[in-house]
């Protein structure tokens, strides 16, 4: 029963996720909360591992969540579930691409999906901010009472140094992750 549930959850996520892995993360988190599969901290750890391992973050996250929920077969069910919709959709697109690529309806649908994708990515940013940089209350009216108690300044330093290292020194994501981990051990 758990395998069918994992397959269904991730098939549904794979079917409605446009815009890449970061769009899928809020969807995965919502499903995890609904079925009480793991805690917020466990999910944050899984996302961190998903970013560090090779491959698309959505597939890695699905695999890790599936494994955490039901071992090897859970990982298989979740991975197949999240990838199967894209495979089916690509087969359909290949079959009908020339017929519908100039369709105004198809273009309108895609134009509607793009801003929603940005919104879902912003949701992922808020989720990870709550899990590492600020407290949940930061995104409420309590922010105006005393914002400084709601911010983890040490985590903000790591965040800023990561952006600085990526933009100014062009340090790659693997090295940035390693350096941020070392810095986390030192200052957090």
UniProtKB/TrEMBL annotation:
Pfam families: Chromate_transp. The keyword Ligase does not apply. InterPro entries: CHR_Transporter, Chromate_transpt. Its main location: membrane. Keywords: Cell membrane, Membrane, Transmembrane, Transmembrane helix. GO terms for cellular component: plasma membrane. It is found in: Cell membrane. It comes from the Bacteria. The keyword Membrane applies. The chain crosses the membrane at residues 6-25, 72-97, 109-128, 148-164, 171-187. GO terms for molecular function: chromate transmembrane transporter activity. It is a multi-pass membrane protein. Belongs to the chromate ion transporter (CHR) (TC 2.A.51) family. This is Chromate transporter. It comes from Clostridium grantii DSM 8605.
